[in-house]
Specification:
By secondary structure, the protein is an alpha/beta fold. The chain has helices at residues 2-9, 42-48, 62-70, 83-96, 103-111, 140-146, 166-170, 205-209, 215-225; strands spanning 18-19, 32-33, 53-56, 75-78, 121-124, 126-128, 133-134, 150-152, 176-180, 200-203. This is ABC transporter substrate-binding protein.
Length: 226
């Protein structure tokens, strides 16, 4: 999980023995690569003989977690769906690794401590297209945006990641489209044209969806484009 890899690498780097191919922060990270988050090479993980594997319930498959535990490898699974839950989860995880209250975690708490007081907006937040997939209920990214005055029009959907047809998205009542650059790499020329006449904001997926050291600067970065 890229967020967790970055948290460990910036706090207790000597403990990190491996990471997925998608773990790109910090830049130049030189550790064993074990494949993607969805289909890691479990033999490589076992061969590394880790004392602990860090995982995320949304990114990593339950079958892989069970297989590692069956092999005698402890797995720490995170699943924060709000900012508060993420900060608490990170604090507990790092404490388990012998690192308590690193500076970036204190900075993240401080950065998000002030409530939003401006005019609120209603937004549509796609995370994929072909087919269109949007943020729904109970998501970490949705909570971050809500703290910045941006309310998700699909926040009450029964699914966490609904797949409405484009016509429904256009009629959802949003006054803003928020387009992150991951997991789908939306750009000025790929995404906004589907919602003619609707203002849009291109945001960093790392600052919208990662929970780790990026949270210390995420508020400032997101506010700058929102």
């Amino acid at each position: 999980m890229p967020s967790l890899t970055e948290a460990v690498a910036r706090t207790v780097p000597d403990l990190l023995v491996g990471a997925t191919d998608w773990c790109v922060e910090p830049a130049g990270l030189d550790v064993l690569r074990v494949g993607g988050t969805k289909f890691p090479d479990l033999e490589k993980v076992r061969a590394a003989r880790p004392d602990l594997v860090l995982a995320n319930a949304e990114e990593n498959r339950r079958a892989d977690v069970k297989a590692l535990r069956a092999a005698g490898i402890p797995v720490w699974v995170t699943y924060p769906r709000t900012l508060d839950a993420a900060l608490t989860s990170l604090e507990r995880m790092l404490a388990a690794l012998g690192a308590r209250d690193p500076g970036w975690l204190r900075a993240a708490r401080d950065a998000w401590s002030e409530p939003f007081t401006g005019v609120r907006r209603r937004a549509l937040i796609p995370v994929w297209r072909r087919p269109w997939v949007v943020l729904g209920a109970d998501t970490f990214a949705g909570d971050l945006l809500a703290r910045l005055g941006v309310d998700n029009v699909y926040a009450t959907a029964p699914e966490r990641y609904p797949r409405p047809p484009l016509a429904e998205l256009r009629a959802a009542g949003a006054d803003l489209v928020v387009l992150p650059d991951e997991p789908y790499a939306f750009t000025a020329g790929d995404g906004p044209e589907a919602f003619p006449g609707l203002p849009y904001a291109l945001v960093s997926g790392r600052h919208l969806t990662w929970y780790g050291p990026s949270l210390a600067e995420a508020r400032e970065r997101l506010e700058a484009v929102l």
